[in-house]
Amino acid sequence: MPLGHIMRLDLERIALEYVVPCLHDIGFCYLDNFLGEVVGDCVLERVKRMHRDGELADGQLAGPSRGVAKRHLRGDQIKWIGGTEEGCEAINFLLTLIDRLVMYCGSRLGKYYVKERSKAMVACYPGNGTGYVRHVDNPNGDGRCITCIYYLNKNWDSKLHGGILRIFPEGKSYVADVEPIFDRLLFFWSDRRNPHEVQPSYATRYAMTVWYFDAEERAEAKKKFRNLTEVSLKIAKKHDSGREHPSDSGPMRGLAMQYPVNVAFTMQEGMHALHNEIPCLAFFVMDHVIVVATQAWNPGCCQDNTPWTSSGQT
């Protein structure tokens, strides 16, 4: 049986027997040893190079160009990656596998129909005690339904390095602490069911995040974006002409500007259709070819099959 076919069967089994049930039961789950050491190292080295070369910029609280960077609230540095850039073959392989997992979840995601995702957001917390305050990825219906984070931190000790992702599941009596360890892949619902925070990091912390979109909610968000942008432009023209309306400085102007900021990042960063085929990724190591297939890709889960810790109250 071809190795590619074996990999597809494994991905489908993991999606249907683990990811889907966990998302419905508790709202999140993670897989350890997702890529394996060889491919995971390639992804890590590419991300480290981006960091060394100064390619990362301060993360924004809302939107890319119109957002606000406040390091006491959000202390990461980021870059958006499509996976097709030169030298990003391993990242593209990772994104393809994640796409496959989400595709195999299919109609079992409840009301959601996923056919697109964002680019990958490479993020680095530089280890100076910065984190990201409690927030919701999609509080206002911008289309994001699943948040997926891949961690890249070797020898991470949360007691020394901090950097835990803490999820506050809606209506639950516990919080979920997820350590950002190397080759761990985390899924959770993007909406108000999962407020979360990144606790202060005291060592360099790398992660890569992609968001998957529900087609119907995303279409509605784009429609609102266009309508509210038109309202904002009309208000601006009235203001510039000196014919100010009472709504110009009131809630209407605030709402007209706030919603586009909340959804604009995906308009700017682009939408990607999910990959249908898993690429064959080969690495040349000391004149030998290592084909990355099932033997180098060892998906797992937490040892006790309970991917959360009851470490406090919401």
Automatic annotation (TrEMBL):
Any GO molecular function: L-ascorbic acid binding
Superkingdom of the organism of origin: Eukaryota
Protein name: hypoxia-inducible factor-proline dioxygenase
Lineage of producing organism: Eukaryota, Metazoa, Chordata, Craniata, Vertebrata
Reaction equation(s) it catalyzes: L-prolyl-[hypoxia-inducible factor alpha subunit] + 2-oxoglutarate + O2 = trans-4-hydroxy-L-prolyl-[hypoxia-inducible factor alpha subunit] + succinate + CO2
Biological process per Gene Ontology, one example term: cellular response to hypoxia
Cofactor(s) demanded: L-ascorbate
PROSITE patterns, per the entry: FE2OG_OXY
Gene Ontology, cellular component aspect: cytoplasm; nucleus
